[in-house]
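Support request, priority: normal
Reporter: lab tech (M.K.)
Component: structure prediction queue

Hi team, I submitted a job for SAM-dependent methyltransferase from Scytonema millei VB511283 yesterday, and the status page still shows it as pending. I've pasted the exact input below so you can check whether something in the sequence is tripping the parser. The sequence length should be 229 residues. Please let me know if I need to resubmit or if it's stuck on your end.
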Amino acid sequence: MTFKLENVVPWGRSMQEYVRMFDLKPNELKLNILDCGGGPASFNAEMTQQGYSVISGDPIYQFTAAEIARRVQETYQTIIDGTKIHYDRFVWQEIQSPEELGKIRLAAMNKFIADFPLGLQQGRYVTDELPHLSFHSHQFDLALCSHFLFTYSDNLSLDFHIAAISEMCRVAKEVRIFPLLVQFSGGISPWLQPVIDEMQKQGCKVEIKQVAYQFQKGGDRLLTVTSDQ
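Reply from support: The job had stalled in the queue. We restarted it manually and it finished. Here are the results:
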């Protein structure tokens, strides 16, 4: 199936949010990290600026910075309007309004867009799409996946989740996935327990951890999957 930019709703988060979402300790920032489905997050740009090593993989990287920026502008208001509709499903404390949320996300996405051409040239942004990654086995210490797996459980099957997580375990020693909620519904993904069961069958250590980050109500937990292979 051809990947089309008009089907994408880009929404990027900052390094500060990544650190909290994925409970990244200072020493873990030094690890060799893969950001799966990184999209227009500024995590890679900010980490690189601070001397750390991150590769981000996403099919959106086949497009130019200008094309991605144009798509951000096309979809921005739709996301803000959706947030207003589902206002009660979010925790409005550190971020106090949909308008403030929009400013924070746009700042992160603009950092990504500014960094993208150089990062692409340096090989920090790779056109990759789960559940098939182009990287070598055990290439990374840590693979992160934000707001993709579990988030889109209505569209992505259980088999897809298992294949994607197994593939991330192939390329990284540890996998962290955040959040565990289905987008907007606020409910835990129906795939969570079956995924845990299957990954344990594959010999992985699986754990749910609480983190110091919550924007979606109830969305303060991540899944860690560690392979002994």
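The chain has one domain: 5-144+153-226. The helical segments are 15-21, 43-49, 65-85, 98-121, 158-171, 192-201. Let us know if anything else looks off. Ticket resolved.
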